[in-house]
Amino acid sequence: MGSTDRYRKVTDLPAAIPVFPLAGALLLPRCQLPLNIFEPRYLKMVDDALRGNRIIGLVQPDGEAAIAASQDPDAKPALAKFGCAGRLTSYVETQDDRTLITLTGIARFRIAGELDATTPYRQCNVEWDEFADDLTPEFGAENVSRERLLDILKQYLETNGLQADWRTIKLSSNETLVNSLSVISPYGPREKQALLESKTLEDRNQMLIALTEMALQQSSPSDTTVQ
Question: Are the C-beta atoms of 44 and 93 separated by less than 8 Å?
């Protein structure tokens, strides 16, 4: 059984979770996200999660001002309405007092309100119902335009002089392919939030294709000539 297979319905998930505001980071169901934890408030959050249900919510600060404010440990920047919860599935302490963790995505959530918590990290009441399908592996995967995504991925890699493990890519399921590429994509916070909020897997696939097409257009030399 996979680490997140224990969550089969939304009632298996808690009504309140700790949240980790992190600009530009994206977590999606059944994807893994490694994180380097060094701030005391988030080291405490990890310790508490290990003693509890191991669930942490990843959410982005909402807007440029909130992103800037998130660097201040005393600030409480506005949070995006939606995030994704992950189970803490890997934990390593380093000699310089950092903690390296891996979150494995469970399901997305809507923030219903913030708790008046005494912990140094923030906690929120969350709602899961509209993302219940996240708990079903490969939900909607049969609708994914896989070949179009692979085609645009190949163009992007060739344009940027990058390589990929095509054998692994070809063996990946549609859900793993779309979500993993979304997580590692080089796009900014707004684009990552749009990928998170895409309603279906194919919606996310189309968003990823569109973002990559725009990136390719921006990297192409202009056809305009000056006479």
Answer: no
Burial label for 82, CB within 10 Å (0-12, 13-18, 19+), is middle
Reported pTM: 0.91
Q: Is 4 part of a structural domain of the chain?
A: no
* Any domain includes 30: yes
Q: How many CA atoms lie within 13 A of 156 on its CB side?
A: 18
Q: How far apart are CA 122 and CA 75, in angstroms?
A: 11
Q: Taking a C-beta distance cutoff of 8 angstroms, is the pair 66, 77 a contact? A: yes
Q: Kindly give the confidence (pLDDT) of every residue in the chain, 227 residues in length, as a single tens digit, with 9 standing for 90 and above.
A: 578 889 999 999 999 999 999 999 999 999 999 999 999 999 999 999 999 999 999 999 997 766 666 667 677 889 999 999 999 999 999 999 999 999 999 999 999 999 999 999 999 999 999 999 999 999 999 999 999 999 999 999 999 999 999 999 999 999 999 999 999 999 999 999 999 999 999 999 999 999 999 999 987 665 443 33
Whether the Cβ atoms of residue 54 and residue 85 lie closer than 8 Å to each other: no
Whether 227 is in a domain gets the answer no
Q: Tell whether 92 and 190 lie within a shared domain.
A: no
CATH of the domain at 129: 2.30.130.40
C-alpha–C-alpha distance, residues 47 and 196, integer Å: 27
